[in-house]
User: Fold this.
Amino acid sequence: MKSPELQILSLNAFSGGGASLAPDVAALVERRKKSFGAGSVLFYDEPLKIVRAEGAYLHASDGRAYLDFYNNVPTVGHCHPKVVEAVRRQVGEFNIHSRYLFDVAHDYAEKLLATFPASLSNLVLTCTGSESNDLALRLAKRMSGGTGFVVTKTAYHGNTATVTEVSPSSYKHGKPPSHVRTVPPPDPAIFGNDMAQGFADAVAAAITGMEADGIKFAGLLVDTIFSSDGVYADPPGFLKAAIEVTHAAGGLFIADEVQPGFGRTGTGMWGFARHGIEPDIVTMGKPMGNGYPIAGVVTRPEILSAFCGDFGYFNTFAASPLATAAALAVLEAIEEDGLIANAAHVGRHLMARLKRLQAKAPITAVRGAGLYLGVEFGTEDGPAPAIAKGLINGLRYRGILIGAAGQYGNVLKIRPPLCITIAHADMLADAMEELLG
Amino acid sequence: MKSPELQILSLNAFSGGGASLAPDVAALVERRKKSFGAGSVLFYDEPLKIVRAEGAYLHASDGRAYLDFYNNVPTVGHCHPKVVEAVRRQVGEFNIHSRYLFDVAHDYAEKLLATFPASLSNLVLTCTGSESNDLALRLAKRMSGGTGFVVTKTAYHGNTATVTEVSPSSYKHGKPPSHVRTVPPPDPAIFGNDMAQGFADAVAAAITGMEADGIKFAGLLVDTIFSSDGVYADPPGFLKAAIEVTHAAGGLFIADEVQPGFGRTGTGMWGFARHGIEPDIVTMGKPMGNGYPIAGVVTRPEILSAFCGDFGYFNTFAASPLATAAALAVLEAIEEDGLIANAAHVGRHLMARLKRLQAKAPITAVRGAGLYLGVEFGTEDGPAPAIAKGLINGLRYRGILIGAAGQYGNVLKIRPPLCITIAHADMLADAMEELLG
Assistant:
């Protein structure tokens, strides 16, 4: 049996055969294989060549506009005028590392930190979510004195050597080293109705297991909406008990907000807020610069100080004027465009439509919050990734982009730019209804 | 005794006391301490607030223009019109991850790969030099079956957990783990006149040492101009013998071109070319996007394939239209502006002036190639970091920005944008002459 990640990749990946490609696409695929080799992963049996983007739409070389329900990076909309303008202005003024002073990094840092509980008052800027999680693991190890981490079964937290170890979904074979222990995703099908207790017990058992093997616990690391596990948001507050277990065992709680952060869940800026908890470390990335590479770690000053006493840490491209100007424009656009309220409003409507669809389709669950929804497919034979794969390609030919997640790749992952409208949500629901009919 | 990195940092770092700061600078320093906490490192006793940049100059809030002999990222010049125009155009068209197709990533990849030996035909794009070195270590481990690396004594290769282990200069106390062994920098004061043999013998001894401890050798990783060790370029070709030792022991040679790459040495695009060698893996970063975060790993297809058989690797922000458009403009600017020839020409002139200065100042060596030069200070009492520190601050007040490197922080590190002129080089040499007089 193939590993989960391999299933997810193959579910949506270009296989190199099958569909006959348009000449411009075929030519690019050949160039791609030559330069990028085994590192190349393309979406779709018939890959898309993008030529332009705006708002909720990507425009392809086939002359069609594709409604984007996949991309969580351009969170305020593709080519948002405010972000475009900020980048165009700053790139012509200056762009330099942060060992010099300049205003915009501090305007940004203060505006960002104001969205966190008061205890989380220090920010380290990095370039990618991977760099943020890599640093977060080091902070947690230093503060706890431990080395062991608990993560979920199909977790993905990034691509550095160290972060891959806490990302079971990246293993094509084999499994994470012994200092990494996994717990099941917070699925009612596994834990029943008392999710808080069930998930906390699983975390406690994982800690007990690693300590029995002589590995001191350092922390619990979860994506607060469990994206790659298949999108789990409910019931609000269920994470609280697991955090208490983590703290009682001397570990730190790292909230990975790379995917749920910046308003996507529709209930505030951060996914952890939904659970009424205060993380020790928060990491963020993807939507932070609407595509400009910027990411960050927010933590308590004493956690950062302890680490900085041991190691020099400097990140050349991070906290630059250009990165922070782009990111500041994103924060302003989220506010000015009312995107958190929009995520809640459109997400609620889409959730209701998907739940109605559930009554007449092989859908085993509709989950999520705001504009991060998961639609799980299954039949009496179990998880049904073939249905998800059929939908992904079927929706592509109907002009809608989407992807899959979960251990079996049977969960349709809905995470559009936050600027989509009720009409866009209806276009997705209508198309799914037709395809599943 | 403080560790090398601590010395280097304190040599040029803002100490928080002493100079009375301009009100705008003092206010920013306070905001900075609050938001960035222990993670903040600022240059100079009296930090600079930057408001604008162009060509070889940074303009500060004190109304002065500072000639930049420090920054190796804006390699084609601050706010180069070609790069500014490329970013301004692409950011308004589209910016998305590379699981879709688009032209510019391939136009870039092919132009970049054409600068490498034919065997090095696959490119993985990342966002930072740290991510590139992190991936390179994984590639080398997979291909060699080993885990042990040899690096130089004061090496710096980046900031991830794994890359910090091969960066002795990042340790404020303690030292790298046992799978990392160090060799002295290629200094004639250590190895005498037969540098090739001496350095190769040191690498061989390090490999023998690790294998005696049961650690299988994976590779030799060096910055091909040994930047943080204090800048060592000569004699051309000396690295060849060490690479032969590496290959004979079953290891891979990783050339870290993050600092010397993209024409800085004046003898071609890459530092390794100076040594007539063909690396197994090449990493690059800093100047690649003239400040836009883009970095990369170039290797042989079979090395990349082996790794990709084990792990999924995807980098969301890398290989994007915006990143590759910026990087393509950099390659074009290097060509069109004749920057490699300029690095050779201006570098030769500056080297000659510095060597003349050596006769009348406490300079123990002038080293380097092209526009990466090192001026080492010492007296009969040994290395003289105080002279380097005095010069760094003295030059700042004369309107010239510069930094230090080396185990003792006694090497003035000269690495300006490659667009500087003979007149600029004379300004630096004149100012140094005055200050040392």
